[in-house]
Amino acid sequence: MESLALLSLLQITNSALPIGAYSYSDGLEFLCDSGKITSAPALYHWLHQELNYGVIRLEAGILWRIYQANFAQDLAQVLYWNNYLSATRETEEMRLSSWQMGQSLAKLIMELDSLTTLDSQVKSSPINTTENNFLDEIFAKLPTPKDNSAGLGCNFATSYAIAASYWHIPAQAMLLGYLMSWATNAVNAGIKLIPLGQTVGQQLLRELHPSIAQAASLVPNLTDDDLENCGFGLALASMQHQVQYSRLFRS
């Protein structure tokens, strides 16, 4: 991977990225509160299962398709898969969290691009004018929850895939970064909720590396008919979260 692409990948997978990912637990808050997940092994088992059979596997498959469509500058396919992803969200909380982070990342990408074009060293950037114009067009046509009568929005996976293709991040590296970022956010939530020590959390994340690598290697081979998940546990946890007595997270 070229240095600029690697640096871009590190930037959009950094936990400090201002998109609000830290405020969501993806159902883990209810699972911990209800006693379903009370230890590092239990959290590992949950995340391992999600990578193999859950929503994140489905999301990664759609992420791959949006990435390829954006590289081909096929706006119709980008919009199709974005709306497809929205339709797979089984609870309102899961949809809204994805849309909120997607809109935040889209706005950030546009602002970063605006700053780059003002840079005197812009000629050294690998981005060309055609890609730049397509970036403007695609974000202008992606739906937002506020202005779309169907109540659709730009998902986080959509904005992430667009950023990755725009910044010439290789597809496999993009997948690994996305899944690693998801796992990191989940482990950080577990550290607060179970609770776990920071070192235990890092050990858990390390143990997830083979599962993440395996998931990333399988995603490119998924057919459209393979885009499914067995995530009813996550959906039930998400639905119960809103009635918890106290909450640290938004989902």
Task: Label this structure with key terms.
65% helix, 12 helices, globular, mainly alpha
Notes on the protein architecture:
- This protein is mainly α.
- It has twelve helices and no strands.
- The protein has helices at 3-12, 28-33, 40-53, 55-71, 75-88, 92-117, 129-141, 156-166, 171-193, 198-207, 209-218, 232-241.
- Helix 6 packs parallel to helix 8 (156-166).
- The longest helix has 26 residues, at 92-117.
- The radius of gyration is 18 Å and the shape is globular.
- 39% of the residues are buried.
- Mean pLDDT is 85; it is low at 117-129.
In short:
The chain is mostly helical. Helices cover 65% and strands 0% of the residues.
Q: Which spans of ≥5 residues are poorly predicted at pLDDT below 50?
A: 117-129
How many DSSP H or I helices? 12
Helix-strand sequence:
HHHHHHHHHHHH
The geometry reads as globular
Work out the oligomeric state of the chains in this entry. single chain
Largest sheet: none
**Helix share, percent:** 55-70%
Our measurement of the CA-to-CA distance between the termini, rounded to an integer number of angstroms, reads 35 Å
The computed structural class is mainly alpha
The mean pLDDT is 85
* Fraction in beta strands: under 5%
The count of DSSP E runs of length 2 or more, i.e. the number of strands, is 0
C-alpha Rg (nearest Å): 18 Å
Task: Record the SSE blueprint.
Layout lengths: L2 H10 L15 H6 L6 H14 L1 H17 L3 H14 L3 H26 L11 H13 L14 H11 L4 H23 L4 H10 L1 H10 L13 H10 L10
